[in-house]
Amino acid sequence: MKTMARPIRETPILYGEDARRFLENMKIRRPETPEARAQRLRDYEFMKKAYERGMAEQRAREEANGGFDPWFKKV
After folding, report:
1. Which of 18, 48, 50, 56 is 20 to 30 A from 41 in CA distance terms?
2. Per-residue confidence band for 3, with pLDDT thresholds at 50, 70 and 90
3. Cα 38 to chain center, whole Å?
4. Is 20 part of any domain?
5. What single DSSP character describes residue 15?
6. Rg of the chain's alpha carbons, rounded to an integer?
7. What average pLDDT does this structure show over 2-24?
8. How far is it, in rounded angstroms, from Cα 65 to Cα 67?
9. Would residue 67 be called left, alpha or beta, if left means φ above 0 and alpha means ψ between -120 and 50 degrees?
10. DSSP string for 39-50
11. What pLDDT, in 10s, does the model give residues 18-65?
12. How many structural domains is the chain composed of?
């Protein structure tokens, strides 16, 4: 049997100077540029429409087949 991926390692616990430096870096706010925000929102809308279209197609297949979607029969 082949393994698809290796297991994810545990997140290390930070102590001392590493922990203090991490907390300081988390407090620094990195504002998003208007261009980056606009691109992120365009990407979100694109994916949202793709999801809605896929769900509409799935509902249509289920309706045509009496509540069963043959596309996903092996999942």
Report:
1. 56
2. low
3. 19
4. no
5. -
6. 23
7. 90
8. 6
9. left
10. HHHHHHHHHHHH
11. 999 999 999 999 999 999 999 999 999 999 999 999 889 888 888 888
12. 1
Count other Cβ atoms within 10 Å, centred on residue 55: 10
The single-letter DSSP state of residue 69 is -
Q: Which of 25, 62, 21, 38 is nearest to 73 (CA)?
A: 62
Q: What is the pLDDT of residue 63?
A: 84
What is the rounded CA–CA span in Å between residue 17 and residue 26? 14
| Residue with tokens 């261009």, as numbered in its chain | 35
AA letter at 24? E
As a residue count, the chain comes to 75
- One-letter amino acid identity for 52? E
The predicted pLDDT at position 43 comes to 97
